[in-house]
Write a structure and sequence with these properties.
By secondary structure, the chain is an alpha+beta fold. It is built from two helices and twelve strands. The protein is elongated. It starts with a helix and ends with a helix.
Length: 310
Amino acid sequence: MRNNNILIFAGFGALVVLVGGLVYEQSQIARLSLSVATLQASVTQLASTTSSTAASTAANIAELARRDQVVQKSQSQLLQDAVAKVTPAVVSIVESKVVPLLRVTYENPFGNDPFFQGFGFQVPVYQQVGTTTKQVSAGTGFIVRSSGYIVTNKHVVPDTNATYTVLLASGKQKEATVIWRSSTEDLAVVKIAGSGYPSVPLGSSSALVLGESVFAVGNALGEYSNSVSVGIVSGLNRSITAGTSGGGSETLTGVIQTDAAINPGNSGGPLVNLAGEAVGVNVAMVQGSQNIGFSLPISKVRTALANLGI
């Protein structure tokens, strides 16, 4: 019996051990199942987080693109607003002079000498029969005071014996008087009669930075009034030697370099920032180059106007 009991016990023990082993395996499986479920939940959460992050990233990219479009639109709108603000006050300045009115005839330089009659020699002979007023040059200026004061370059109005006419953006013409020519700078001030004119506000040339957007307005080539060219500030405080129409030269110091196109006829026009403020006076370009132009800083204009009490 003992043996049987032992066997039974042993068998029971074996059964218990076996059952215990079975219970142990089931517990392991349960924990494993729990781990798998946790892992699946983690993967699902990670996938959800990744998807959310991707969606958020895409949304951020879309928002940045939208903002960039807004900024670009704003820059374009700023430029358009500034141009609309300034151009009504930009004028053309035409120089006219009294010149001889000539009559041309052709004569044989040898007179009536019969030896040369058959050769058909003829040379022009000019005879003055009066005088006429002729336009000899054109440049640009901009109104800085509503009472008709206009800033331009001295080389636009150089001749004290000439007469000057201002062509307004409205198409009206006004006789002009040069009231000041600088002895040291390529600047002059012209006055037209009347009041209530649109004017260009003066900005700060000392606040300019490299790369800042600017535009030039002028009477390009003396023919295309209120031509606008856009560029940036390419350099500050430059010193250059510029040639004059009379064949001389002039040294300009402290000038602003820009890649906004400055053509013949643009001289005296304003260099303007996106706030619609004049920051310079266009004065020169480098011949044979691509868009290298120069403007006198507006600080010099401010000083001149203050000294003139304007």
